[in-house]
Automatic annotation (TrEMBL):
Claim: Transmembrane is one of the keywords in the record: yes
Keyword rRNA-binding listed: no
Keyword annotations of the record: Membrane, Transmembrane, Transmembrane helix
Name this polypeptide is given: Phosphatidic acid phosphatase type 2/haloperoxidase domain-containing protein
Family matches, as Gene3D superfamilies: Phosphatidic acid phosphatase type 2/haloperoxidase
The species this protein was found in: Candidatus Roizmanbacteria bacterium CG_4_8_14_3_um_filter_36_10
Length: 188
């Protein structure tokens, strides 16, 4: 086993043991890992942001339209890139832990049967957090906290290795940053 894979496995196991594995935390993190729920969470956050912005400044603002466009395109590109392109090229299997480690997580939510690398949840979450932070700098800590919770849930539940989540988060963040740069050049 290469040193990178050893580091990945040991870091994953360490992160799985930081928070106690019990029914409460298992259900808590399972909520963030339900297939599609991360997109729903981000759409609700975006809707609330637009709603509160709309209350301050009635009428659909150009900024609101730009935000929705950036948000939607960034999430679509990120999800397509991670879930349909990179996962099928790399084809890394999901984690299979030995019995002395696997017992840590009650089997509340099952992991998908597709490939592990990179984490689509982490990629989409960091893409959304990046876009939301660009348009609403006051709450950026909240957006990144939600992204971290969603991403960590994938490790906690044993669905991803540490590096799956880190690379997924980087892809989401970088895709959004590139898209925001393109938007700032041609969108004005």
């Amino acid at each position: 086993m290469s040193s990178v894979l050893k580091f990945d496995l040991y870091t994953t196991v360490l992160l799985q043991t930081i928070i106690p594995h019990n029914v409460f935390f298992s259900y808590f993190f399972s909520f963030f890992s339900i297939k599609g729920i991360s997109v729903v969470i981000w759409l609700l956050i975006a809707a609330f942001l637009i709603f509160f912005e709309e209350r301050k400044h009635p009428g659909i603002q150009k900024k609101d339209k730009q935000f929705l466009l950036c948000f939607t395109i960034s999430l679509l590109i990120t999800a397509t890139l991670t879930n349909f392109v990179i996962k099928n090229i790399i084809r890394r299997p999901r984690p299979i832990f030995p019995p002395n480690i696997y017992h840590l997580t009650p089997n509340i939510s099952s992991c998908p049967a597709d490939f592990s690398f990179p984490s689509g949840h982490a990629a989409s979450s960091f893409a959304a957090a990046c876009i939301l932070s660009y348009f609403d700098k006051k709450r950026r800590w909240f957006y990144y906290l939600v992204a971290i919770l969603i991403s960590y849930s994938r490790i906690y539940l044993g669905c991803h290795y540490f590096l799956d989540v880190v690379v997924g988060a980087l892809i989401g963040y970088l895709v959004s940053k590139v898209f925001l740069q393109i938007h700032s050049i041609i969108g004005k």
